[in-house]
Amino acid sequence: MKALIYPKTISRREPERFAPAVIAQRTKARKRLFSDRTYRIGSENAFRIGPQIRELELQGHKVIKCNLGEPDFPLAKHIADEIKRQIDLDLTHYCDPQGILPLREAIARIVSRTRKIDISPDCVVVFPGGKPPIGLTQQTYCNPGDEVIYPSPGFPIYESFAGYVGARPVPLHLQEEADFSFGGREIAPLITDRTRVIILNFPSNPTGGVSTREQLEEIADVIYAKAPDQVRIYSDEIYEDILFDRNHHHSIASVPEMTERTIIVGGVSKSFAWTGGRVGWAVFPTTEEAAVFKNLNINYFSCVPAYNQMGAAVALESPLSAESISRMCDAFSERRDLMVAGLNSISGIRCRKPGGAFYLFPNIAGLCEKLGAIEAYRKMPAGDREQSSPSTLVQMFLLWRYQVATMDRRSFGSIGSEGQHYLRISIATALDDLKIGLERIHKAATDIDGFQNFIKEGKHVC
Ligand code: PLP
Fold first, then answer.
1. Would the N or C end of the chain have less CB density within 10 A of its end CB?
2. Cα-Cα-Cα-Cα dihedral of 429, 431, 435, 436, to 10°?
Protein backbone atom coordinates (compact mmCIF):
# COMPACT_ATOMS: atom_id res chain seq x y z
CA MET A 1 0.00 0.00 0.00
CA LYS A 2 1.36 3.45 -0.92
CA ALA A 3 2.27 5.92 1.80
CA LEU A 4 -0.20 8.75 2.00
CA ILE A 5 0.82 12.32 1.36
CA TYR A 6 -1.54 15.10 2.28
CA PRO A 7 -0.90 17.91 -0.20
CA LYS A 8 -0.78 21.37 1.33
CA THR A 9 -3.14 22.72 -1.27
CA ILE A 10 -6.02 20.46 -0.28
CA SER A 11 -6.64 20.40 3.44
CA ARG A 12 -8.26 17.25 4.83
CA ARG A 13 -10.70 19.52 6.55
CA GLU A 14 -11.61 21.27 3.32
CA PRO A 15 -14.78 19.29 2.53
CA GLU A 16 -16.14 20.15 5.97
CA ARG A 17 -15.67 23.85 5.37
CA PHE A 18 -19.34 24.41 4.85
CA ALA A 19 -20.62 22.08 7.59
CA PRO A 20 -23.34 24.06 9.39
CA ALA A 21 -21.77 23.43 12.80
CA VAL A 22 -18.45 24.75 11.53
CA ILE A 23 -20.06 27.84 10.03
CA ALA A 24 -21.95 28.39 13.26
CA GLN A 25 -18.75 28.17 15.31
CA ARG A 26 -16.86 30.55 13.06
CA THR A 27 -19.58 33.12 13.01
CA LYS A 28 -20.49 32.88 16.70
CA ALA A 29 -18.73 36.04 17.70
CA ARG A 30 -19.71 37.94 14.58
CA LYS A 31 -23.06 39.00 13.26
CA ARG A 32 -24.41 36.01 11.42
CA LEU A 33 -24.42 36.20 7.66
CA PHE A 34 -27.11 33.58 7.07
CA SER A 35 -30.63 33.10 8.34
CA ASP A 36 -31.04 30.97 11.48
CA ARG A 37 -32.52 28.13 9.47
CA THR A 38 -29.43 27.95 7.28
CA TYR A 39 -27.41 26.84 10.30
CA ARG A 40 -29.88 24.06 10.97
CA ILE A 41 -29.77 22.15 7.69
CA GLY A 42 -27.69 18.98 7.50
CA SER A 43 -26.26 17.29 4.42
CA GLU A 44 -25.68 13.98 2.67
CA ASN A 45 -22.16 12.87 3.50
CA ALA A 46 -22.05 10.36 0.63
CA PHE A 47 -21.61 13.40 -1.60
CA ARG A 48 -19.39 15.28 0.82
CA ILE A 49 -16.57 12.72 0.99
CA GLY A 50 -16.13 13.00 -2.80
CA PRO A 51 -13.20 15.48 -2.54
CA GLN A 52 -11.37 13.23 -0.06
CA ILE A 53 -11.72 10.31 -2.46
CA ARG A 54 -10.49 12.46 -5.32
CA GLU A 55 -7.52 13.52 -3.23
CA LEU A 56 -6.56 9.86 -2.71
CA GLU A 57 -7.04 9.13 -6.39
CA LEU A 58 -4.81 12.06 -7.32
CA GLN A 59 -2.14 10.42 -5.20
CA GLY A 60 -2.49 7.30 -7.36
CA HIS A 61 -4.58 5.14 -5.06
CA LYS A 62 -7.38 2.91 -6.22
CA VAL A 63 -10.24 3.71 -3.88
CA ILE A 64 -12.94 1.07 -3.48
CA LYS A 65 -16.08 3.16 -3.48
CA CYS A 66 -18.58 1.56 -1.16
CA ASN A 67 -19.95 4.98 -0.26
CA LEU A 68 -22.14 5.56 -3.28
CA GLY A 69 -25.88 5.15 -3.46
CA GLU A 70 -26.05 4.70 -7.20
CA PRO A 71 -26.25 1.50 -9.22
CA ASP A 72 -23.09 0.84 -11.23
CA PHE A 73 -25.04 -0.15 -14.34
CA PRO A 74 -25.50 1.79 -17.55
CA LEU A 75 -28.84 3.27 -18.46
CA ALA A 76 -30.73 0.66 -20.54
CA LYS A 77 -30.52 1.26 -24.28
CA HIS A 78 -34.29 1.48 -24.87
CA ILE A 79 -34.49 4.35 -22.36
CA ALA A 80 -31.41 6.16 -23.70
CA ASP A 81 -32.77 5.83 -27.24
CA GLU A 82 -36.06 7.43 -26.23
CA ILE A 83 -34.31 10.40 -24.59
CA LYS A 84 -32.22 10.97 -27.73
CA ARG A 85 -35.27 10.64 -29.93
CA GLN A 86 -37.13 13.26 -27.87
CA ILE A 87 -34.18 15.66 -28.07
CA ASP A 88 -34.17 15.20 -31.84
CA LEU A 89 -37.89 16.05 -31.80
CA ASP A 90 -36.89 19.26 -29.98
CA LEU A 91 -38.70 18.45 -26.76
CA THR A 92 -36.22 20.79 -25.12
CA HIS A 93 -38.36 23.64 -23.86
CA TYR A 94 -40.35 24.54 -20.75
CA CYS A 95 -43.10 22.06 -20.04
CA ASP A 96 -45.87 21.41 -17.51
CA PRO A 97 -44.47 22.21 -14.03
CA GLN A 98 -46.54 19.34 -12.60
CA GLY A 99 -44.89 16.89 -15.00
CA ILE A 100 -45.81 16.09 -18.61
CA LEU A 101 -49.09 14.23 -18.95
CA PRO A 102 -47.73 11.04 -20.61
CA LEU A 103 -45.41 10.49 -17.64
CA ARG A 104 -48.03 11.32 -15.02
CA GLU A 105 -50.41 8.92 -16.78
CA ALA A 106 -47.79 6.18 -16.80
CA ILE A 107 -47.06 6.72 -13.10
CA ALA A 108 -50.77 6.71 -12.26
CA ARG A 109 -51.33 3.46 -14.21
CA ILE A 110 -48.39 1.69 -12.58
CA VAL A 111 -49.03 2.89 -9.05
CA SER A 112 -52.74 2.01 -9.39
CA ARG A 113 -51.90 -1.48 -10.63
CA THR A 114 -49.13 -2.30 -8.15
CA ARG A 115 -50.80 -0.78 -5.06
CA LYS A 116 -54.31 -1.85 -6.06
CA ILE A 117 -55.67 1.67 -5.61
CA ASP A 118 -57.16 4.16 -8.01
CA ILE A 119 -54.77 7.02 -8.80
CA SER A 120 -55.51 9.99 -11.03
CA PRO A 121 -52.67 11.59 -13.05
CA ASP A 122 -53.88 14.87 -11.50
CA CYS A 123 -52.58 13.69 -8.12
CA VAL A 124 -49.09 13.02 -9.52
CA VAL A 125 -46.32 15.63 -9.40
CA VAL A 126 -42.92 15.13 -11.06
CA PHE A 127 -39.77 16.45 -9.37
CA PRO A 128 -36.07 16.55 -10.27
CA GLY A 129 -35.41 13.27 -8.42
CA GLY A 130 -36.87 11.55 -5.42
CA LYS A 131 -35.07 13.91 -3.06
CA PRO A 132 -36.84 17.29 -3.51
CA PRO A 133 -40.26 16.16 -2.23
CA ILE A 134 -38.66 15.27 1.15
CA GLY A 135 -37.96 18.88 2.05
CA LEU A 136 -40.95 20.29 0.21
CA THR A 137 -43.27 17.97 2.11
CA GLN A 138 -41.93 19.04 5.50
CA GLN A 139 -42.07 22.66 4.42
CA THR A 140 -45.66 22.28 3.23
CA TYR A 141 -47.26 20.36 6.09
CA CYS A 142 -45.23 21.51 9.14
CA ASN A 143 -45.33 24.68 11.14
CA PRO A 144 -42.50 25.30 13.61
CA GLY A 145 -42.86 22.89 16.52
CA ASP A 146 -44.82 20.29 14.54
CA GLU A 147 -43.28 16.85 14.59
CA VAL A 148 -41.76 14.70 11.88
CA ILE A 149 -41.24 11.01 12.62
CA TYR A 150 -38.57 9.37 10.49
CA PRO A 151 -36.52 6.17 10.56
CA SER A 152 -33.05 6.33 12.05
CA PRO A 153 -30.76 5.13 10.63
CA GLY A 154 -32.45 6.60 7.58
CA PHE A 155 -31.82 8.71 4.50
CA PRO A 156 -30.09 11.80 5.97
CA ILE A 157 -32.27 14.33 4.21
CA TYR A 158 -35.26 13.37 6.41
CA GLU A 159 -33.55 14.65 9.57
CA SER A 160 -31.76 17.44 7.76
CA PHE A 161 -34.97 19.14 6.65
CA ALA A 162 -36.84 18.76 9.95
CA GLY A 163 -34.35 21.16 11.54
CA TYR A 164 -34.43 23.47 8.54
CA VAL A 165 -38.20 23.96 8.60
CA GLY A 166 -38.24 24.30 12.39
CA ALA A 167 -40.11 21.04 12.93
CA ARG A 168 -39.23 18.76 15.83
CA PRO A 169 -37.33 15.75 14.51
CA VAL A 170 -38.58 12.52 16.10
CA PRO A 171 -36.30 9.62 15.14
CA LEU A 172 -37.74 6.12 15.16
CA HIS A 173 -34.68 4.07 16.07
CA LEU A 174 -34.54 0.89 14.02
CA GLN A 175 -33.28 -2.27 15.67
CA GLU A 176 -30.79 -4.66 14.13
CA GLU A 177 -32.50 -7.61 15.86
CA ALA A 178 -35.70 -6.77 13.95
CA ASP A 179 -33.77 -6.61 10.65
CA PHE A 180 -34.18 -2.82 10.82
CA SER A 181 -37.90 -3.11 10.23
CA PHE A 182 -40.70 -2.18 12.62
CA GLY A 183 -44.40 -2.42 13.29
CA GLY A 184 -47.13 -0.65 15.25
CA ARG A 185 -45.57 -1.20 18.67
CA GLU A 186 -42.44 0.75 17.78
CA ILE A 187 -44.16 3.73 16.22
CA ALA A 188 -47.04 4.11 18.72
CA PRO A 189 -45.13 5.93 21.50
CA LEU A 190 -43.80 8.53 19.04
CA ILE A 191 -47.13 9.78 17.71
CA THR A 192 -48.57 12.91 19.36
CA ASP A 193 -51.09 15.63 18.53
CA ARG A 194 -48.25 17.55 16.88
CA THR A 195 -47.30 14.72 14.48
CA ARG A 196 -47.72 16.03 10.94
CA VAL A 197 -45.43 13.87 8.80
CA ILE A 198 -44.49 10.22 9.29
CA ILE A 199 -41.74 9.04 6.97
CA LEU A 200 -41.52 5.39 6.01
CA ASN A 201 -38.81 4.00 3.76
CA PHE A 202 -39.03 0.39 2.66
CA PRO A 203 -36.79 -1.03 1.23
CA SER A 204 -34.56 1.16 3.29
CA ASN A 205 -31.45 3.20 2.81
CA PRO A 206 -29.09 2.55 4.63
CA THR A 207 -30.17 -0.78 6.15
CA GLY A 208 -31.88 -2.62 3.30
CA GLY A 209 -34.76 -3.33 5.71
CA VAL A 210 -38.09 -4.31 4.16
CA SER A 211 -41.58 -4.54 5.63
CA THR A 212 -44.29 -7.15 5.45
CA ARG A 213 -47.89 -6.34 4.67
CA GLU A 214 -48.73 -7.29 8.29
CA GLN A 215 -46.26 -4.77 9.69
CA LEU A 216 -47.68 -2.03 7.50
CA GLU A 217 -51.19 -2.94 8.62
CA GLU A 218 -50.08 -2.65 12.24
CA ILE A 219 -48.47 0.73 11.57
CA ALA A 220 -51.65 1.82 9.78
CA ASP A 221 -53.83 0.78 12.73
CA VAL A 222 -51.71 2.85 15.09
CA ILE A 223 -51.68 5.88 12.80
CA TYR A 224 -55.44 5.64 12.35
CA ALA A 225 -56.02 5.43 16.09
CA LYS A 226 -53.43 7.93 17.35
CA ALA A 227 -52.40 10.43 14.70
CA PRO A 228 -54.28 13.64 13.87
CA ASP A 229 -56.47 13.32 10.74
CA GLN A 230 -54.30 15.73 8.79
CA VAL A 231 -51.16 13.62 9.26
CA ARG A 232 -49.35 12.66 6.07
CA ILE A 233 -47.40 9.45 5.65
CA TYR A 234 -44.44 10.09 3.38
CA SER A 235 -43.80 6.65 1.94
CA ASP A 236 -40.42 6.79 0.24
CA GLU A 237 -40.55 3.77 -2.06
CA ILE A 238 -37.64 4.65 -4.32
CA TYR A 239 -36.08 1.18 -3.86
CA GLU A 240 -39.35 -0.65 -4.57
CA ASP A 241 -37.86 -2.70 -7.43
CA ILE A 242 -34.65 -3.73 -5.69
CA LEU A 243 -35.65 -6.75 -3.66
CA PHE A 244 -34.02 -10.11 -2.93
CA ASP A 245 -35.11 -13.61 -1.95
CA ARG A 246 -38.47 -13.29 -3.73
CA ASN A 247 -39.49 -10.47 -1.37
CA HIS A 248 -42.46 -8.47 -2.61
CA HIS A 249 -42.85 -4.74 -2.24
CA HIS A 250 -45.72 -3.56 -0.07
CA SER A 251 -46.94 0.00 0.21
CA ILE A 252 -48.83 1.40 3.18
CA ALA A 253 -50.97 3.25 0.62
CA SER A 254 -52.65 -0.08 -0.16
CA VAL A 255 -53.95 -0.41 3.40
CA PRO A 256 -57.55 0.85 3.77
CA GLU A 257 -57.82 4.32 5.36
CA MET A 258 -54.18 5.00 4.49
CA THR A 259 -54.57 5.78 0.76
CA GLU A 260 -56.02 9.17 1.67
CA ARG A 261 -53.17 9.90 4.11
CA THR A 262 -50.20 8.69 2.08
CA ILE A 263 -47.81 10.43 -0.29
CA ILE A 264 -46.20 7.69 -2.39
CA VAL A 265 -42.75 8.63 -3.62
CA GLY A 266 -40.70 6.99 -6.35
CA GLY A 267 -38.22 7.75 -9.09
CA VAL A 268 -35.95 6.49 -11.82
CA SER A 269 -32.62 6.83 -9.97
CA LYS A 270 -32.42 3.35 -8.47
CA SER A 271 -34.75 1.10 -10.49
CA PHE A 272 -33.30 2.20 -13.81
CA ALA A 273 -29.75 3.06 -12.68
CA TRP A 274 -30.48 6.59 -13.82
CA THR A 275 -29.37 8.91 -11.02
CA GLY A 276 -28.39 11.61 -13.51
CA GLY A 277 -31.85 11.72 -15.11
CA ARG A 278 -33.26 13.64 -12.12
CA VAL A 279 -36.77 12.33 -12.47
CA GLY A 280 -38.76 11.48 -9.38
CA TRP A 281 -42.41 11.75 -8.44
CA ALA A 282 -44.89 11.89 -5.64
CA VAL A 283 -48.51 10.76 -5.70
CA PHE A 284 -50.56 12.97 -3.39
CA PRO A 285 -53.81 12.05 -1.66
CA THR A 286 -55.72 14.95 -3.29
CA THR A 287 -55.51 17.16 -6.36
CA GLU A 288 -55.50 20.17 -4.00
CA GLU A 289 -52.23 18.95 -2.48
CA ALA A 290 -50.77 18.17 -5.91
CA ALA A 291 -51.60 21.74 -6.96
CA VAL A 292 -49.68 23.14 -3.98
CA PHE A 293 -46.60 21.14 -4.97
CA LYS A 294 -46.99 22.12 -8.61
CA ASN A 295 -46.86 25.73 -7.46
CA LEU A 296 -43.71 24.99 -5.44
CA ASN A 297 -42.16 23.54 -8.58
CA ILE A 298 -43.04 26.74 -10.43
CA ASN A 299 -41.37 28.73 -7.68
CA TYR A 300 -38.24 26.62 -7.43
CA PHE A 301 -37.30 25.19 -10.82
CA SER A 302 -40.22 25.56 -13.29
CA CYS A 303 -40.12 22.03 -14.66
CA VAL A 304 -38.13 18.84 -15.15
CA PRO A 305 -36.59 18.38 -18.65
CA ALA A 306 -39.36 16.96 -20.83
CA TYR A 307 -37.08 14.62 -22.82
CA ASN A 308 -36.04 12.91 -19.60
CA GLN A 309 -39.66 12.65 -18.54
CA MET A 310 -40.46 10.91 -21.84
CA GLY A 311 -37.54 8.58 -21.16
CA ALA A 312 -38.99 7.90 -17.70
CA ALA A 313 -42.39 7.05 -19.21
CA VAL A 314 -40.71 4.49 -21.46
CA ALA A 315 -38.67 3.17 -18.52
CA LEU A 316 -41.85 2.59 -16.56
CA GLU A 317 -43.90 0.99 -19.31
CA SER A 318 -41.55 -0.79 -21.68
CA PRO A 319 -41.53 -4.59 -21.31
CA LEU A 320 -37.73 -4.39 -21.77
CA SER A 321 -37.29 -2.69 -18.39
CA ALA A 322 -38.21 -5.72 -16.28
CA GLU A 323 -35.28 -7.62 -17.73
CA SER A 324 -32.72 -4.91 -16.90
CA ILE A 325 -34.09 -4.55 -13.37
CA SER A 326 -33.94 -8.28 -12.81
CA ARG A 327 -30.35 -8.49 -14.13
CA MET A 328 -29.34 -5.73 -11.74
CA CYS A 329 -31.06 -7.37 -8.76
CA ASP A 330 -29.37 -10.71 -9.53
CA ALA A 331 -25.98 -8.96 -9.50
CA PHE A 332 -26.76 -7.16 -6.21
CA SER A 333 -27.95 -10.42 -4.70
CA GLU A 334 -24.72 -12.23 -5.62
CA ARG A 335 -22.64 -9.36 -4.21
CA ARG A 336 -24.74 -9.24 -1.06
CA ASP A 337 -24.20 -12.93 -0.35
CA LEU A 338 -20.46 -12.70 -0.90
CA MET A 339 -20.02 -9.55 1.16
CA VAL A 340 -22.26 -10.60 4.05
CA ALA A 341 -20.39 -13.90 4.38
CA GLY A 342 -17.03 -12.12 4.08
CA LEU A 343 -17.88 -9.43 6.64
CA ASN A 344 -19.22 -12.01 9.09
CA SER A 345 -15.91 -13.85 8.89
CA ILE A 346 -14.11 -10.76 10.30
CA SER A 347 -13.78 -10.70 14.05
CA GLY A 348 -15.67 -7.69 15.49
CA ILE A 349 -18.11 -7.37 12.57
CA ARG A 350 -21.65 -8.74 12.45
CA CYS A 351 -23.75 -8.26 9.33
CA ARG A 352 -27.37 -9.14 8.58
CA LYS A 353 -28.63 -9.98 5.11
CA PRO A 354 -30.68 -7.07 3.78
CA GLY A 355 -33.97 -7.87 2.07
CA GLY A 356 -33.69 -5.07 -0.49
CA ALA A 357 -31.87 -1.94 -1.75
CA PHE A 358 -28.11 -2.23 -2.30
CA TYR A 359 -26.56 -1.55 1.06
CA LEU A 360 -25.11 -3.60 3.88
CA PHE A 361 -25.24 -2.18 7.37
CA PRO A 362 -22.80 -4.17 9.49
CA ASN A 363 -22.55 -3.76 13.23
CA ILE A 364 -18.92 -2.88 13.95
CA ALA A 365 -19.14 -2.45 17.73
CA GLY A 366 -16.61 -5.26 18.27
CA LEU A 367 -14.25 -3.75 15.72
CA CYS A 368 -14.50 -0.29 17.30
CA GLU A 369 -13.63 -1.85 20.64
CA LYS A 370 -10.78 -3.94 19.25
CA LEU A 371 -9.11 -1.11 17.32
CA GLY A 372 -9.51 1.31 20.21
CA ALA A 373 -11.95 3.60 18.38
CA ILE A 374 -14.27 3.93 21.34
CA GLU A 375 -11.42 5.02 23.60
CA ALA A 376 -9.96 7.31 20.93
CA TYR A 377 -13.34 8.96 20.49
CA ARG A 378 -13.72 9.41 24.24
CA LYS A 379 -10.39 11.28 24.36
CA MET A 380 -11.25 13.70 21.55
CA PRO A 381 -11.90 17.36 22.45
CA ALA A 382 -15.64 18.02 22.84
CA GLY A 383 -15.76 20.22 19.72
CA ASP A 384 -14.29 17.49 17.50
CA ARG A 385 -16.48 14.81 19.08
CA GLU A 386 -19.59 16.67 17.96
CA GLN A 387 -18.77 15.91 14.33
CA SER A 388 -17.57 12.36 14.97
CA SER A 389 -18.24 8.97 16.56
CA PRO A 390 -16.29 5.71 16.97
CA SER A 391 -17.69 4.46 13.66
CA THR A 392 -16.61 7.74 12.03
CA LEU A 393 -13.05 7.05 13.19
CA VAL A 394 -13.19 3.57 11.66
CA GLN A 395 -14.69 5.03 8.48
CA MET A 396 -11.81 7.54 8.26
CA PHE A 397 -9.22 4.86 9.02
CA LEU A 398 -10.62 2.62 6.26
CA LEU A 399 -10.61 5.51 3.82
CA TRP A 400 -7.19 7.06 4.50
CA ARG A 401 -5.19 3.96 5.38
CA TYR A 402 -6.93 1.27 3.33
CA GLN A 403 -8.69 3.28 0.62
CA VAL A 404 -12.11 1.79 1.18
CA ALA A 405 -14.84 4.43 1.19
CA THR A 406 -17.76 3.61 3.49
CA MET A 407 -20.25 5.71 5.45
CA ASP A 408 -20.52 5.97 9.22
CA ARG A 409 -23.68 5.52 11.30
CA ARG A 410 -24.14 9.20 12.09
CA SER A 411 -24.40 10.05 8.40
CA PHE A 412 -27.87 8.49 8.54
CA GLY A 413 -29.44 10.59 11.26
CA SER A 414 -27.28 11.74 14.13
CA ILE A 415 -29.93 12.44 16.78
CA GLY A 416 -29.75 9.68 19.36
CA SER A 417 -27.18 7.70 17.38
CA GLU A 418 -24.58 7.76 20.18
CA GLY A 419 -23.42 4.29 21.13
CA GLN A 420 -24.56 2.78 17.81
CA HIS A 421 -21.59 1.47 15.87
CA TYR A 422 -22.37 0.70 12.25
CA LEU A 423 -21.07 1.33 8.77
CA ARG A 424 -22.99 1.49 5.52
CA ILE A 425 -21.34 -0.43 2.74
CA SER A 426 -22.83 0.07 -0.71
CA ILE A 427 -22.69 -2.99 -2.95
CA ALA A 428 -23.38 -0.90 -6.03
CA THR A 429 -19.75 -1.52 -6.99
CA ALA A 430 -18.30 -4.22 -9.23
CA LEU A 431 -17.87 -7.65 -7.63
CA ASP A 432 -14.10 -7.69 -8.20
CA ASP A 433 -13.73 -4.33 -6.47
CA LEU A 434 -15.90 -5.50 -3.59
CA LYS A 435 -13.60 -8.49 -3.16
CA ILE A 436 -10.61 -6.14 -2.95
CA GLY A 437 -12.52 -3.97 -0.48
CA LEU A 438 -13.33 -6.98 1.67
CA GLU A 439 -9.68 -8.03 1.75
CA ARG A 440 -8.65 -4.53 2.79
CA ILE A 441 -11.28 -4.40 5.56
CA HIS A 442 -10.00 -7.80 6.73
CA LYS A 443 -6.46 -6.41 7.02
CA ALA A 444 -7.61 -3.16 8.62
CA ALA A 445 -9.54 -5.11 11.26
CA THR A 446 -6.32 -6.48 12.74
CA ASP A 447 -4.20 -3.35 12.26
CA ILE A 448 -4.45 -2.04 15.81
CA ASP A 449 -1.08 -0.26 15.64
CA GLY A 450 -2.02 1.30 12.32
CA PHE A 451 -5.24 2.63 13.84
CA GLN A 452 -3.45 4.06 16.87
CA ASN A 453 -0.87 5.78 14.64
CA PHE A 454 -3.62 7.11 12.44
CA ILE A 455 -5.24 8.70 15.49
CA LYS A 456 -1.90 10.10 16.71
CA GLU A 457 -1.35 11.77 13.35
CA GLY A 458 -4.60 13.63 13.95
CA LYS A 459 -6.01 12.87 10.51
CA HIS A 460 -9.20 11.41 11.88
CA VAL A 461 -10.79 14.75 12.74
CA CYS A 462 -13.63 15.57 10.38
N1 PLP B 1 -34.87 8.52 -0.94
C2 PLP B 1 -33.96 7.61 -0.56
C3 PLP B 1 -34.30 6.66 0.53
C4 PLP B 1 -32.70 7.55 -1.16
O5 PLP B 1 -31.80 6.65 -0.79
C6 PLP B 1 -32.41 8.48 -2.20
C7 PLP B 1 -31.09 8.49 -2.84
O8 PLP B 1 -30.13 7.92 -2.41
C9 PLP B 1 -33.39 9.41 -2.54
C10 PLP B 1 -34.61 9.40 -1.91
C11 PLP B 1 -33.12 10.45 -3.59
O12 PLP B 1 -33.13 9.93 -4.85
P13 PLP B 1 -32.86 10.84 -6.13
O14 PLP B 1 -31.46 10.63 -6.52
O15 PLP B 1 -33.83 10.34 -7.15
O16 PLP B 1 -33.13 12.25 -5.77
1. N
2. -50
